[in-house]
Amino acid sequence: MSFMNRFSAFLKPHKTVPITPWRANSRWDLSLSRVAILFFGLAIFGLGDALVVQSNLGNAPWTVFAQGLSLKTGLSLGWATFVTGCFVLLIWIPLRERPGFGTLSNIVIISAAIEFGVSVFPLQETLFGGLASALIGIALVGLGSALYITCGLGPGPRDGAMTGLHQRTGVRVGRVRMGIEVTVLIVGALLGGQIGLGTALFALLIGQSVAISFGIVARLTSK
Q: What mean pLDDT, rounded, does the chain reach?
């Protein structure tokens, strides 16, 4: 098999969430290695999101909302992301969803990583630089998602709200997710959050990025 064929096979998307050696038995089943992988995945996710922000081409829907909130309140983007995550977590109460260690870590670490990333990564001023920043960011968000999801320590606040609404309403999960994303995108844009080519790229590519990352994790951990 040629190098290109092997490389293509390595990047083949995975159709399901792989079972990894570090997967927890419950949302509070903690170990040093599992928590380290969780934290690393969440940090990578936040740094990837920051790269999309610094692409200057438009943000992911939830970051559009957080940026709009930041502009209206004077909070930094990281703190606005933290406040947004806490508010979404409150929605879990009537939905009877239960957070896990990964849920709470998601709010704190991703917010901190975004705060750090936007202060370190340069704001791109050219289309080429912006595209490179956005695409690398989307790849990192996908990898970070794969790592923290496979820990099995609980979904992020937004994912939990999505599945909770799906279970309570019976509406298909894809439609629930689309409704949530479109709503926060519109509200965020009205608040002044940036939308553009980067937003479209994120919407189009993030699913494939996560699926490819699941595949990489599955192949690297298979016996």
A: 92
Burial call 163-195: b when 16+ CB within 10 Å, e when fewer: ebbbeeeeeeeeebbeebbeebbeebbebebbb
Q: Report if residue 132 sits inside a domain.
A: yes
Domain span at residue 139 reads: 30-221
Candidate from 8-22, 118-132, 195-209 with smallest mean pLDDT: 8-22
pTM of the model: 0.93
Total domains in the chain come to: 1
Q: Is 142 in contact with 204 (CB distance < 8 Å)?
A: no
Round to whole Å and give the CA distance between 173 and 41. Answer: 24
Mean pLDDT of 38-60: 97
User: Does 22 map to a domain?
Assistant: no
Q: Which of 70, 151, 137 is nearest to 106 (CA)?
A: 151
HSE of 114, CA atoms in CB hemisphere, 13 A: 26
CB atoms under 10 Å from CB of 95, counted, come to: 16
Kindly state whether residue 15 falls inside one of the protein's structural domains. Answer: no
**Close Cβ partners of 64 (under 8 Å, ≥ 6 residues apart):** 58, 184, 185, 188, 189, 193, 194, 195, 199
For residue 215, being part of any structural domain is answered with: yes
